[in-house]
Structures are given as C-alpha cells and as structure tokens.
Amino acid sequence: MDLFFFVVFAVVAIGGGVSVVLQTHPISSALSLVAVMGSLAVLYLLLGAEFIAMAQVIVYAGAIMVLFLFVIMLLNSGGETKPGRSAMVKVLGVPVLAGFVAIIAYVFSLSFNDTLAVHFGGFSDGSARSIGRAIFGAYLLPFEVTSVLILVAILGAVVLARKELD
Q1: What is the pLDDT along the chain (166 residues), one digit of tens a residue?
Q2: HSE of 129, CA atoms in CB hemisphere, 13 A
C-alpha cells in the first residue's frame, strides 16, 4: 500500500513541477507549486518524518506560497506570450529529450547500483526533538548565517521599495 501511495504522489509532484514550468500565467504556476509542496509533504509522511511533513505544509505550502501569490498580485503581471518555435526545435525536441533522459538514467543506474532500498516509516530522525538538536547543535552556524542573510534581504527589499523623498 505504501508503494501505491508513493507512486501516486510522486506522479503528482512530477506533474505539478512540469505544470509550474509550462504554465503561462504566474498564478496558475504558483498554484501548481502548491500541489508539488502538498505531495512532498505526503511523501515525507510515508517516510515517517511527520514533523518535516507538517513544516512543509505550514511553512512552504502555507506562508511562502501566500507570499508568492501576494507578490504576483502586487506586480499585476499578465500571462506570458510564447514566441513561435522553429521547425528544427519541433522535430528534434522530443528525440533529444529522450536521449538525455536515457543518459541520465544510465548514469544513475551505474552510480546507485548497490544502495539499500527505502523502508517506508523507517526514518527515525524526523521528530521535532531530533531536528531541534541538529539545528541548534551541529548546524548552528549555518542556521545563524541563513538568518542574517534573510535579514539583509528584507532590509534590501525595504530600501528598494522605499520611495525617494524630494
């Protein structure tokens, strides 16, 4: 049953990712990204990382996507116009893509031939306690550097958005 849910939500995640790239309207693209975030949360649940799954839903599918939608609506951008494609792109696009996917699959099959299989629910480090110990223990410096970078980005956005005084 776990394999069935994995395949279903993996297909939803891949389809949503393709839809993010192919959509011409930015709001449709952002909503496709919400589908990707939701399916990733279910995949985390299948692995047994409940805290990471809920953080995925609350932080990314919730707060970050609301922020993206507000920015898109604030910019009031319309749909994208696609230019016409040349005949060579139409003829060679699918075969070149199939060859590229075959090469990537071959390299991955050589690289990951002797790895162990994933056991659904076997991940034990997804609790809030273990993540908190990791963030505030071994990864404290990268965590603090990231917070300073976010603060600098916020200050930069405020400076750029500020209207010049006469």
Answers
A1: 888 999 999 999 999 999 999 888 888 888 899 999 999 999 988 888 888 888 889 988 888 888 888 777 777 766 667 777 788 887 888 899 999 999 999 998 888 776 666 677 666 777 788 888 888 899 999 989 998 998 898 888 777 777 655 4
A2: 1
Dig out the tokens for 51 from the structure.
């805290």
Count CB-CB contacts under 10 A for residue 147: 10
Domains contained in the chain, CATH given = 2-78+85-161 (1.20.120.1200)
pTM of the model: 0.64
* Residue 90: Cβ within 10 Å count: 10
DSSP state of 34: H
